[in-house]
Amino acid sequence: MTVNAPLRQEVFAANRATGRLACTIVAAPGGSRRSRVHEAGSLRLRFPNGERGGALEAVMVNTAGGMAGGDRFNIDISVGAGARLTATTAAAEKIYRSLGPTTEIGIKLGVGAGGALAWLPQETILFDRVQLRRTIEVDLAGDASLLLAEAVVFGRAAMGETVVSGEFFDCWRVRVRGTLAFAETLRLGGAIAQRLARRASANGGVAVASVLKFPGDDASIASVRAVAADCGGEVGVSAWNGFALARLVAPDGATLRRDLIGAITALGGIKLPRLWLN
Description:
- By secondary structure, the chain is an alpha/beta fold.
- The protein contains 5 helices and 18 strands.
- The strands form 2 sheets. Strands 3, 4, 5, 7, 8, 10, 11, 13, 16, 17 and 18 form an 11-stranded mixed beta sheet that branches. Strands 2-1-6-9-12-14-15 form a 7-stranded mixed beta sheet, with no helix packed on it.
- Strand 4 and strand 5 (55-62) form a beta hairpin.
- The protein is globular, with a radius of gyration of 19 Å.
């Protein structure tokens, strides 16, 4: 039996994974607590360890076991005035190849006056012929604190995998008191392996990460530079307009993780989620 194109598209769309998380964290006499949690689709949010290091710890879980072309996830987390949250993921997120449709991830983060958010998901692993579009939007009060780390690994080296081609679009926007204060957009398309091999790009590295801190200053830079000599990959760090930003490039995911743990610990001065250390 021949299935016509519109019907194939309808069946394909019906089998795509969707997920939404919305969460509000507030300060309470006994510490930070969740006042609202909404879960839909294949995303779940768990609080396995209570407070660690003065912050509530949240773990995001994707029950779909990865994402493929056409999947869409939306995450909206608000940290209220005086509240503290460390958010991570249960495992590295895998983004599989696409037959055409784009995988979309939309992240919105808000931190109120005197609040603190450490956004520390484990690595995002991209597969060959990936089509991923991710946006991260952050709204901060003037005296809020933010530590935001995102790591991307292009293929699993231990499995002999290489991301030869695909499309990766990553857009970050951070506003302080409603004013745009940090903006960057990364786009890697077409022959990704060739682009990463260029000296001005990743110089052959296949694992990259960025760690953004607010507020950040020269002391933040010095703390990262103090550990950079022991890193297996390359680390660069700078500070401006109240932000500190560290960039990491490594030859593989394992090396990047070791370097990233050092950079996060130095820059953030916080306890890493236990799942990072297992």
